[in-house]
Specification:
The protein has 173 residues and is of the alpha+beta class. Helix content is 44%, strand content 23%. The longest helix has 27 residues.
């Protein structure tokens, strides 16, 4: 996986290439080359590419890995304060807590907006039960509430629905 330092290096090389193409574009206008307008487009494209690489060098692209967490899938995200993740049917309370912590860290984004004055992101964990053929029931196992504004939220509120986990273990037997 690329690191921000890698993207900064790519930005430098892309910036140099952009300057070379820009000089070539100016030269093409002076010498009235036929491809001068194409070079304007190439210069603009390279400037956008350089800016994109620079922006990738500013933000970390790594995901948090918390020991004991299981793989989850993002099922629903309204882009503001509500998300739902899917976890496997065979999950324990400690795995669920670790998974909720990992999801809270990975799903956090400074660009999320508050809806109706809510200041917390709620991530709910669910699985799907199939009590009989053709019937699927979403089964919520827990949730975590974290700050929308602070990346390092020490006040995360994790709720594990132990009664639901007990029902899940009997349903899996």
């Amino acid at each position: 996986m690329f690191t921000p330092a890698d993207f900064l290096q790519y930005t430098q090389w892309s910036g140099i290439a952009t300057l070379v193409v820009a000089v070539l574009t100016v030269l093409s206008f002076i010498l009235k080359w036929a491809l001068r307008f194409r070079l304007v487009g190439a210069t603009g494209f390279m400037a956008v590419l350089t800016f994109g690489l620079f922006s990738l060098s500013l933000a970390p692209l790594t995901r948090t890995v918390i020991p004991g967490a299981v793989k989850y899938s993002l099922i629903y995200d309204n882009g503001a304060t509500q998300t739902v993740i899917a976890v496997p049917n065979q999950i324990t309370s400690s795995q669920l807590e670790a998974t909720l912590r990992q999801a809270a860290s990975n799903i956090y984004s400074a660009g999320r907006s508050s809806i109706r004055g809510e200041s917390q992101l709620t991530i709910r964990a669910r699985t799907v039960l199939h009590p009989e053929p053709g019937l699927s029931i979403p089964f919520y196992l827990g949730q975590v509430k974290r700050s929308l504004a602070n990346r390092e939220d020490a006040q995360m509120n994790i709720e594990i629905y132990e009664d639901k986990l007990a029902q899940l273990s009997t349903a899996n037997s």
